[in-house]
Write a structure and sequence with these properties.
Layout: H1 2-19, E1 28-32, H2 38-46, E2 51-54, H3 57-62, E3 73-76, H4 85-91, E4 94-98, H5 101-113, E5 118-124, H6 137-148, E6 153-160, H7 172-188, E7 197-199, H8 206-211, E8 216-219, H9 221-224
Parallel strand pairs: 1-2, 1-8, 2-3, 3-4, 4-5, 5-6, 6-7
């Protein structure tokens, strides 16, 4: 049952947080709902999950749950095309994968037009994988400064997707680099201390991510089970 999986994931987060001297409450679970049904998403919400992450705009529309808690959020965690920006600002509370100034401007304009403020995170590419989106570290500061000038976007922090490894420990350097980048940007005043979210870690490596400072972990298989 999903409720049992949620409890198991929370226990693992608690243990990982303790190993690094952190409070487990500082880590939020983003339920990665790619390929999941509305019924499973609602079961996760009933089990205490408060953030649902979608990779596709059309899936967010099709699988929108009928349950809406006061603290419930829907995050976009896939690659967002500019032609989907208008729909995205209607559907999502947070876009975790912003990596382009033109997309930022489109999101800002469209969110302002409907009177919404959208949370955004900058996706950082730390491994240079061509098949994955993300801003290279040297370009992050410029993008952050541009986003901070936009009135309808609320900057939350940084996000990354390291390469897939069979051994979770091999992902640790990437998580550490994102944390160090956040700390560097805060020290320079480019990020404010409240813009400290780090979305990193998935089913195979989230405990290592928590040890390295993750504030959000994106969990799919460990929560929902294998996709059909």
């Amino acid at each position: 049952m999903i409720s049992e999986r949620v409890a198991h994931i929370r226990a693992r987060i608690t243990a990982a947080a303790a190993r690094s001297g952190r409070a487990p409450e500082a880590v939020k679970i983003v339920a990665a709902a790619k390929g999941q049904s509305r019924e499973k998403i609602e079961e996760a919400i009933n089990a205490g999950i408060r953030i649902i992450g979608h990779n596709y705009v059309q899936e967010a529309v099709r699988e929108e749950p009928s349950i809406h808690m006061p603290d419930f959020e829907v995050h976009f965690i896939g690659h967002l095309q500019r032609n989907k920006a208008g729909r995205a600002v209607e559907l999502f509370h947070v876009i975790q994968t912003l990596d382009d100034e033109k997309l930022a401007a489109d999101l800002d304009r469209r969110a302002a037009a409907i009177g919404r403020e959208i949370g955004v995170m900058i996706q950082v590419s730390l491994a240079g994988e061509s098949q994955k989106s993300g801003m290279i570290p040297d370009g992050v500061e410029s993008l952050l400064e541009g986003v901070r000038k936009l009135k309808a976007l609320r900057l939350l922090g940084l996000m990354t997707m390291p390469p897939f490894f069979d051994e979770p420990e091999r992902a640790r350097p990437f998580f550490a680099r994102l944390r160090e980048l956040r700390e560097h940007l805060i020290s320079k005043g480019v990020l404010e201390t409240r813009m400290n979210e780090l979305s990193m870690g998935m089913t195979g490596d989230f405990e290592v991510a928590v040890e390295e400072g993750a504030t959000m972990v994106r969990i799919g298989t460990a929560l929902f089970g294998p996709r059909a």
